[in-house]
Amino acid sequence: MTNIVSTRLLVLGSGPAGYTAAIYAARAGLSPIVVQGIQPGGQLTTTTDVENYPGFRDVIQGPWLMEEMQAQAEHVGTKVIWDHVAEVDLTRRPFVLKGDSGSEYHADALVIATGAQAKWLGLPSEEHMKGKGASACATCDGFFYRGKKVAVIGGGNTAVEEALYLTNHSHDVTLIHRRDSLRAEKILQDRLFAHPNIKIIWDSEVAEFISGGSPEALTGLDLRNVKTGEISRVDVEGAFVAIGHKPATELFEGKLKLDSDGYIAVETGTTRTSIPGVFACGDVMDKIYRQAVTAAGTGCMAALDAERFLAAEEFDALQAAE
Ligand SMILES: Cc1cc2nc3c(=O)[nH]c(=O)nc-3n(C[C@H](O)[C@H](O)[C@H](O)COP(=O)(O)OP(=O)(O)OC[C@H]3O[C@@H](n4cnc5c(N)ncnc54)[C@H](O)[C@@H]3O)c2cc1C
Q1: How many Å lie between the centroid of ligand 1 and the Cα of residue 182?
Q2: CB of 137 closer than 6 angstroms to any ligand 1 atom
Q3: Domain boundary among 241, 260, 275
C-alpha cells in the first residue's frame, strides 16, 4: 500500500533555500515537510571553507553550516525526510509528488528549492583537484587566491564576469577558451580586453589539471591547442571552470513555465511560479547570483509567499462557507 504523507507545505530540496523556507514556514505554523533529495544539505556540503555567509567571524565549513540549518529547521518544527522525488502532478490540488521510496506526498502548497549544478569539464584530474585549486565559483573561492596566478575556463558571460571579478584578488588572470572568439556580451568583452591584468589563450582546452606539493595543491594546467594538438603548460594556483550551470528542473519540464535556460520562471520580485500555490527559490530560479545567502533570502520569500497564499485561500473558503 502506498504511504501517503499529507502536508500544508512541502519543500523540495535541502540546501540553504529549502531549509530557510522551512524555518520561516515552521515559524508561521505551517508544519512543513522538507524532502531532502540525494544531496542532503545541497551544494555547500561539497565545499570546505565558507567565508562569506554572514554571522560568522571565522571561516566555517560548508557541511557544518548545512547541519546547523537542518537542526534549526527541525528545532522550530520542520519534518525532514530523506527521499528523492521522481514524479510530480501539479494539475490538481493538493499537488502530488512521488518519491523513490514509494511514498506519495500530498501538499496544499509547494516550494521548489532543487538548486542548480555547475557544469565541469569531466576530467579525472579536475575531479581530484576540486577544493584543492579547481573551483566552479569565483565569487565563492576567489578570495582564497589573493595575489596568486589564476585561470578561468570558458567563453560566455559567466567566464568573462568571473575573470573580471578575479582581478580584485589577482594581478595575473588567464582566460582559456577553446574557440577564437567569445560568446559573452560585447560590453563584457570590451571590459575584458581592456583589462591590463587579464590575458587570453585562444583555441585551447584543458587536457590535465597538474598538482604537486604537500598538502597537494594545483600548480598548473596542461592545455591542448584544438587546431594543432600541441600541449603547453600554464602555471596557475587556481582554476575556475565557468562553462555554465544546469538547474535541477527536469521534473518540471512541460509542467511549469521555465525560462530559455531551463530555470524556473517567477514573477519579478516574488517567488510565484506559473502555477498558483507553487513557489520557487534559490539557484533553481536564480541564474545571476547563485550564492548561499541569496538562496536563503529567496527561501524566506518563498515561505512568506506560500503562507500568504494559503491564508488568503483559507479566508476565501471561510467567507464562502458563511
Ligand atoms: C564547491 C562550491 C562551493 C561554494 N561555495 C560557496 C560559498 O563559499 N559561499 C556561497 O554563498 N555560496 C557558495 N556556493 C554556492 C551555494 O552552494 C549555492 O548557491 C547554494 O547551495 C544554492 O542553494 P539552493 O538551496 O538553491 O540549492 P542547493 O544547495 O543546490 O540544494 C538543492 C537541493 O535540492 C535537492 N533536490 C534536487 N532535486 C531533487 C528532487 N528531485 N527531489 C528531492 N530533492 C531534490 C538536493 O538534494 C539538494 O538538497 C558554492 C557552491 C559550490 C558547488
Answers
A1: 28
A2: yes
A3: 241
The cell for 285 is 530560479
Range of the domain at 142: 120-241
Q: Write the single-letter amino acid at 322.
A: E
> 285: Cβ below 6 Å to ligand 1?
no
Model pTM score = 0.90
Residue count of the chain: 322
The closest-lying atom of ligand 1 relative to the alpha carbon of residue 117 is 30
CATH of the domain at 292: 3.50.50.60
How is residue 17 written as a grid cell?
533555500
Name the domain count of the chain.
2
**Last residue of some domain: 206, 241, 276?**
241
Residue 23's Cβ-side half-sphere holds a number of Cα atoms within 13 Å equal to: 21
Distance 244 CA to ligand 1 centre (A): 15
- pLDDT tens per residue, range 87-99: 999 999 999 999 9
Does 249 contact ligand 1 (Cβ within 6 A)? Answer: no
Q: What are the pLDDT digits (tens) for 122-179? A: 999 999 999 899 999 998 999 999 999 999 999 999 999 999 999 999 999 999 999 9
